[in-house]
Structures are given as C-alpha cells and as structure tokens.
Amino acid sequence: MKRILLIDGNSLIFRAYYAQAYQGYTLTTSSGIPTNAVYSFANMITNLLKERQYYDVKVAFDKGKKTFRHDKLENYKAGRASTPDDLIKQFPIAREFLTSANIDWFELENYEADDLIGTMVKKAEKESPSFEIEIFSSDKDMFQLISNQTRIVTSEKGFISLFGIDELFDKYGISPSQIPDFKGLMGDSSDNLKGVEGVGPKTATKLIQDYNNLKGIYENIDLIKGGVKDKLIKDKESAFLCKEIATIDCEVKMESVEFKELEIDINKMINFLNKYEMKSLVSRLTGRANFINDKTNNAEMKPSIEFTYNLINDLDEEYWSEENYLYIETFEENYHKGKILSIVVVNDKGNFILNDWSNAIYFNKFLMSKQNKKIVFDLKKTWVLFDNHNLNYNQESFVCDLMVAMYILDSNLVSNLQNINVLFNKDLIPNDEEVYGKGVKKTFDIDNSIKYSYLICKTICLKESHYAMILKLKEKNQYELFANIEFPLIEVLYSIEKQGLHIDRKELEKQTLKTLKAIDHLEEKMLFILENKIPQNFNFASPKQIKELLFDTLELKSNKKNSTDRDSLEKLIGLHPIIEYLIEHRKLSKLYSTYLRGFEKFIFSDNKIHTILHQTLTNTGRLSSSDPNIQNISVKDDIQKEVRKIFVCEPNKKFLSFDYSQIELRVLAELGDETNLLDIFNTKRDVHDEAARLIFHLEENEKVDASQRRTAKIFNFGIIYGLSGYGLSNDLNVSILQANEYIQNYYKAFPKFENFKKELISIAKNEGYSQTISNRRRVINELNSPMAKIREFGKRIAVNMPIQGTAADILKVAMINIYKNIKLQNLPVAMVAQIHDEIIFEIPDKGYDHIIKIIEKDMKNAFIDLLKIIGVNQEVKVELEVNVSIGNNWLELK
C-alpha cells in the first residue's frame, strides 16, 4: 500500500495559530514579521510525515472569501469571527514553507479546500487500489469522503488515530454518504447553516437510520409524529439547502495533480527556516526530513552529529581540569529509581565518556575533589543518581546548575536540555527522540558512534552556554536570585527528597479497603436508581459512558460540550438524583486511584516515599511535587484529608509544622503599601473580619456574621487572583450589580490597591513581563494575545506573579536559612516536606522548644533576609506570622 496524506491547509494553520495563542506565544522575526502559526504549522506537518511515513502529501487551501456556496446562500459563514491580522500575514509564509519543502499545495478561485481534497480523493481512489488515503482536517464535512480506501487522521495530545467507516458509525450511527443529510437536518452554526430548527444529533441520527436520507424522510413525512414532523415541514427548504451546501464537490477541474513519491528538499527548507529566524526548528525538522526521505526499509535516519571523544575506563588525573562539565544520561523520569546509562566529562583536556564507573577509582576521587569544579544540568538528579550507584562526591565542588539558570532566565521554557536551543535561538543540540526514538521505541541500544557523539554534543552544549547564561543573569539583574536563593536551595531540596516520609502501610491498606467498599456501595445505589436504563457492567468511571447516560439516555439539559467534569456535574444537581452520587463516586475514585492504590508504587524498600520536589516547573517560583504529588492532597475535603494519616514519624519522633499565615496577603500589603491592611496585620487583628467591617461599613460594636466574613475572605484572596464582578456574582450568588458595588467598597476600604493593580498591568504591558521583588521574571505573552479571554488572563498573571512569586522567594529563603542552622548547630531535626506555605520537620519527641524558637525566628525574618540577599535597601513594614503545630502523623498537624 502507498499511503497518501491530504491536508486541509486552512484548518491546520488555524489550529497551529490558536495552539500557540492559547500558550501566549507571539513569535516574530527581528523585523517584526509574525511567525508563530507558521512555526507550529511546519512542526505539525513534519512530525505527522515522520510518524506516518507517507508516499505523497498534498495540501489544499481556500482561496478568497467567496465561493460557489455564497451564490446559494449569501450569508454563508457570515457568523464567523474575522481572522486575526497577524494570522492573515502568515498564510503566504505557510505556502512558502510548503514550496521550500517540495510539498505540493493547491488553491482555486470559487472553491474551498474541502472540494479540492474531495477531488483529489476520488482521483487517487480511481487511479490505484493500492493508494491508502488519509485526510488531516478538523472539518467534520470531510467525513463524507470516508471509504474503504480513505480515512480521517486526527491528532490529540500527541497521539495520532484514524477515523474510518466503523468509527463514524460507532460515533454517529450513520454512513459517510449520509453526512450531508445529517448536516441538512442539524445545520452548522459555524457555517451559518440553519438546518431544521430544534433537531439535535440524537433526533437527526434516528431519522436518517429510519428513512436513509432527506429524500426518504420527506417521502415518509406522514409517518413521523408530533413536534418533529412540524419542525421538518417548517424548515424543509432550509434542510435541502443545507445538505446541498454541505456536500463536497468532488469533480473540480484541477490541473497538475500527480501522485508521486515525496522527496523533501532539505536545503531549501533550511534556507526558509533561516530566513524567518526559526533556527530552533532547523535541527528538529532536518532530522525529520532525513527520516522522511530515507527509503531503505523505513530505517530511521539519526541526526548527523560528529564529535571526537575518548572512551575511557577511568578518569585518570591527567584528564582532570579546574573546570569540568558533567552530563549523566538516564531514561527514568523518577530519578530515585534511575540508573546511570552513561557519564560524560568535557573540559579543556578533551571529551571523555566513562565506560565503567562502578570500579572507576580515579573518577570517584575526581568527584570528591573540591578543587575540580563541576558544572551540570539538573544537579539534584545528578546527586541522586550518584547515590543510586554508591558514588561518593563533594557537594561543594558542584558550582553551577544550568537547568536552574535557564529556568530563571525564562520560566516559560520546559526544563530540558534541548530548550537551551530556544533560549539562545541556536541549534546546539537535537532532541532525544530524534536519536533514541520515541515512546516504546526509545532505546539506548543504538549505534555507538551516534550515541557517543550525541552525549558529547549535550555536554559541549553545557560548556558553550555556561558563561552566556551567567552573563544574561547579570545583565537582567537576576544573578543574586540564582546564586543566593535558587542554587543554595538545591541542596535543601535534595536533603528533603533523600530523607523521605514514612508510610503507615496498615493505615494505607485500611483506607484503601474502606474506599473500595464505599465505591461499590455507591455503584449498587446508582444501578438501583437507574434500573433498566443501563447494563449491569456499566462503567461509572468512564466519561464517555457517563456522557451518553446523562445527555442521551436521561436527556438532561446539556452544556455546550456535553462535559462531565466536576463543575458541569454540579450545575446539573437537582435535575436527577444520580448526579450527586456521580460526584461522590468521582471523588472516591480519584482518592483510590491517586492517593491510596496510586501511592503504593512510590513506596521504597525503606518504607518511605521520596517525592520529587520540582524547582523549575512553575512560573511563579513556587515548588511543586510528583512521584507522588503530596501537595495536592486537599485539607478542605474531610474524606481526602484522611490520607494524611498514612504519613507517620519514625519511632520516638514527632512532626513539627510551621505554616505562614496569609503570606500572600501580607506580601500584597507590603508591595502595595496599603496602610489599612498593614495596620490590620501589624496589630494582629483578624484580616477577614476587618475587611468585612470596611466593605459592609459596620460600626465598631456590630458583629461580623459568617456570610460577611466569607465575602471578605473571597475578596482578600480574589484581589490577588483577579477579582471580577461576574466571577464574584457566581461565588456569592448575588447580582453582578451587587458584586460590583462590593468591589467598589473594597477598593474604598483599601484605596491603594486599585492603582497598584493598574500599575502592575501597565508595567507588564510595557516591559513584556512581570517580576518579583527579587527580579524573578515571568514573560507574559498572554497580554498580546488576539483572544480577549487570554489577554484578561494575562492581566491576572501580571498582578498575581509579583505577589505569589515574592511569597515563594520568602519561603525559599526561610528554608535555606533553617537548613544552614540545622547543619551549623548540628540540630537533631530533619526537613521532610514542603507543602505550599508550610514546612514540615521531623524532630525528637522531647526537648524541642529551642528548635521551635530557631525555626520560627528564621521564618519570621525571611522577608528581611530576602531583601538583604538581593541587595535592596528597604525596610519591611509587614510582620510575618507563623502557625506552629505538632503531631504524630500529618493529619494531626493543624
């Protein structure tokens, strides 16, 4: 079979554009030409060609806004939003890319891309039964082109799947030839096609199944009963018009359509990418193009990487240097279970690959030598991998972590080595998948010359970017943040991970069995309520089956996308008794799969979990965790918080918790210089009560009721996360008018906040980023998005980032100072967890009063210390408060 790909160019470039827009990307050349859509367009096409190995590829575009369909319906597609200007400019560039790559593309006056693709499909099917045709498009009209030879190819979250005759019938219960009839009945709001008003997908499917097509439906109209008949009669003309417009013309006169073996023109494609300054794509796309062009038994072409290297059994002293770049290769994401696949050292003596590190005496001495400085990418992982192989090392000899440096320079970048390419807009290194393969095909067992050259390439990348990163940090006034906060924090996080948290296996088993019984009981109740409406083997954990149950079987009023997420289910409460049971079932199922049975795979032989604390994941500087994620265990939900009971101390120890009280509000008061809020905090009054008094104009002797306090609490935190009249009206169940009145009262109560927020947004718009007091930056591309919702999101980021980011930096300074004191004073205490604004320690169960005083002092002084670290000569006006609690397990900590 020869596989042919036909691409709906308009569909793909719109998809590419909005995929970038949702992420806030607004790529342009140095001369201001927008390229974000083309960047993603080129990336998507070449990735698709590499994944599916096509014989030939053709791309079709719409040409102009008017087609023969406008002659039939003047307002055809009239309801669509206008195409953004920066996307319009990229259509010719996308065509230029295809030409440069030697991919045929077509457009024709008076026709849409659908018609050109339909014509090419019929030509290919007629030309040869050996052609296997795939159409890449998000347009459901294309379903009518499906046949035994032709299928639709879809890509969701990186997974490619095919949609053919069987899949169409499973989803819609109709055949490809019935799609125009289906559209005739349903209409299509995106094309401004009315169809038959009031006829939805369920009714349309049944009518077509009963009478085959529109003609059959209207020939048997007297057999159809009730309101459906009236609707059909009323909109008969509209139904047939919609069908005619939805029918793809497969007989367009097209010249020069010839199916031939695809050969990507790599040199011209590289020239195109360089012309439009897409240098970070050059290596990736040329690697794919080599693969696409390779016809030798579909053997994968690896990138051409050639570096000289020495393969050695030990790192003798003659290979040591004052400055050394280390790269440790592993495939395990959870590095606590990771195995070292290779160790590379690059320095001014040469490029070295260590063949056998288990018996490398001099390499061990090298790691222990304080004089031989080491620079790595992901230092914490490097140390843990050394531990896994019983390699000793001197922590002080590791002087730089370029992963952390890259994160500070651009927190929007995913922290992998290849993104150094993006940071410097150069092609320093290919992607792992281009060398090792992707997914289940990923392997270290490849040609040694390619593998070793690639490993050297990675390590040389560290060497070439090291000083450039340090220079960038200094230019952006971020070096102190790196050197005095983020880099020292690595050792603290490493110690927490290595220490781990004990698990009470009996308690875990008890909660697991209890939750399973509760889930079974719920399912029995739901089966009884639904009686004969569902089969006994119905899967209540399947979103697809739940969707069909709610919106097809029970015919509940659906939301726009027939969503069954928690928010959507909560809006259906009261419409059917099953809804509340489903919500409870969802909660218990998540508890079981994520926090009970899900935790078991993370328990090590020492009966502990060793969560990974991610230092370079969030944009604000906050820490996050995984394997397992212990920061996501809710304390508000009575059932879920019971999970905390499985985390216990070692014998004769206790947990000691220090939790910052309302730290983000205190930072807001400080940065916004809001006198009223500062006064509330510094006189130790209840901030929510006092805010309520100011919002509702209460007298001194009037008591704040629970509802008023709740409203004030929503305001106090909403000011950080983007308060709006609409959102507040939903939260408080009041009118938007009333909500806006509350907002005005709040700003009168705290008069400096409104201008402070406006100032932060203005700075972010002008500078392109927002930053914390320690110069931690977040680039906010969202402020330039063509989509209003994303721009509003960008404004919320501009306000939230300086506050939440500064709070995160304060917590990090506290952790560093406490850790230093533990080491300096040799205290019998271990830091074992960091959860949001809380740090948890394991301490002896007696005589710990002096430990509490030391830790409390460091936490309360952390804001002052932060300013000293970054060299800001400014007095801190707000006092930080810390809540202290002690317990035998995590649940007991309050």
UniProtKB/TrEMBL annotation:
GO terms for biological process: DNA-templated DNA replication; double-strand break repair. Its EC number is 2.7.7.7. It comes from Mesoplasma corruscae. The keyword DNA-binding applies. InterPro entries: 5-3_exonucl_a-hlix_arch_N (IPR020046), 5-3_exonuclease (IPR002421), 5-3_exonuclease_C_sf (IPR036279), DNA-dir_DNA_pol_A_CS (IPR019760), DNA-dir_DNA_pol_A_palm_dom (IPR001098), DNA/RNA_pol_sf (IPR043502), DNA_polI_exonuclease (IPR054690), DNA_polI_H3TH (IPR020045). It is an enzyme of class 2 (transferase). The lineage of its organism: Bacteria, Bacillati, Mycoplasmatota, Mollicutes, Entomoplasmatales. This is DNA polymerase I. Keywords: DNA damage, DNA repair, DNA replication, DNA-binding, DNA-directed DNA polymerase, Exonuclease, Hydrolase, Nuclease, Nucleotidyltransferase, Transferase.
